[in-house]
Amino acid sequence: MAKQKKSLKRKIAHAAGWQLAKRGAKMLPFGGTVVAVALVGTDIKNKGLVKGVINSGIDAIPVVGLVKNGIEIVRGKDFLPDKEEKRNGSKA
Fold first, then answer.
1. Four-residue CA torsion sign, 71, 72, 73, 76
2. Residue 68 belongs to a domain
3. Which residue segment(s) compose the domain that 59 sits in?
């Protein structure tokens, strides 16, 4: 049996689909960057100024932030721990 050749329209649709998929995959890591930038204030509040900025900076790097957060989920601990809460009435 002879193989049927793909029509020109089908070839164009197939190529366009791959181009869209590749572009979408490239953009996904940057969604994490937007979230990290939006949460800078929360990180600074929980970790302190220096640790919060460093943590948000690492999270904003597309692949590095993804790997860091994945490791933190597996470990169950942050690389940069939150600052200790002050108790009311204590002299610290």
1. positive
2. yes
3. 25-74
- Please indicate, yes or no, if residue 90 is contained in any of the structural domains: no
Instruction: Please report whether residue 54 resides in a domain.
Output: yes
Q: Which amino acid does the sequence have at 20?
A: L
b (16+ CB within 10 A) / e for 10-40: eeeeeeeeeeeeeeeeeeeeeebeeebeebb
What is d(CA 92, CA 82) in angstroms, rounded to the nearest whole number? Answer: 17
Q: How far apart, in whole angstroms, are the C-alpha atoms of residue 14 and residue 5?
A: 14
Tokens of 10: 């089908």
Reference 65, options 23, 22, 29, 24; nearest CA is 29
Question: 68 burial class (0-12, 13-18, 19+ CB within 10 angstroms)?
Answer: middle
The model's pLDDT over 1-36, given as tens digits with 9 standing for 90+, comes to 556 677 888 887 777 777 666 555 555 667 777 777
Dig out the tokens for 31 from the structure: 């969604």
Indicate yes or no: pTM above 0.70: no
